[in-house]
Structure formats: C-alpha cells, structure tokens
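hiii, so i know i said id send this last week but things got crazy w the move. better late than never?? heres the sequnce for the chain we talked about at the cafe, plus the structure i predicted for it. fair warning i was half asleep when i ran it
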Amino acid sequence: MIRIAIVDDSETARMFIRRCLEIVGFSKANFIEADNGKDALEKIKKTPVDLILTDLTMPVMDGETLLKWIKSNPKLCEIPVLVITSAGNPAKESELIKIGAIGVLPKPISPAKLNTFLAPFMKDKEEEQ
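okay and structure toks below
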C-alpha cells in the first residue's frame, strides 16, 4: 500500500489535498499528515513514505527547508516531493526543482492539476505492485 505524507499548516488544506489525491486514484493510500516540516520529518523517520506533498509556507519548518533535509538525507532522498504553494514565483519554483522537487503546484490545487504531476509517479507505483 502506498504511503503519502501531506504537510501543511492548514488542516483544511490537508483535508482538501487528501480528497484530491483520493479522486485521482490514491483512495487506498495510507495518509500521514503533519502541520509543519519538523513534524513531517519526525513522522517520516518512523513511518517511511512513498510520496510527500508539502506546502511551502509553514511555521517551525517551511517546505523548502523540509525539501532540503529530505534531499540531503541518504535514507530519504529518493522520496518524490511535490511542493504546493500560493506564491507564484517562477524563480523560486526553479530553485525548488533544482533542490529536488518533482514539481511545484500552485494553489488552489485541483484533481486535474495534481494528476498532471502524479500520473508518471502512479504509473511507476502500479508497475511495482
């Protein structure tokens, strides 16, 4: 079973992201939720995940810092990370991709937008099962 971490300081946003993921085909996924990057890292170290969706702007540890931590950790660096943000900044998006994000998805998200980024990932996961 696929495990997906949803990291956002807004409980409503986490719920919406989860619902979008369920709509695009992750209805049987095991979801792990965290309200900031630090909380996410603690949970991911205890329960490995296959995919991380993270907000960019959060208290305690933001999404960019979380992404850097994940990509610099040999045990976590292979986990795909999709950044979701309301800041439409092409320079920042480019920087996040260089750090290792699989994509940067602007808010508000929709199942269709999410599917665009995750369709290749879903195909890989289907082949593994």
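btw Residues 3-128 form a domain with the Rossmann fold fold (CATH 3.40.50.2300). thought thatd interest u
miss u guys!!
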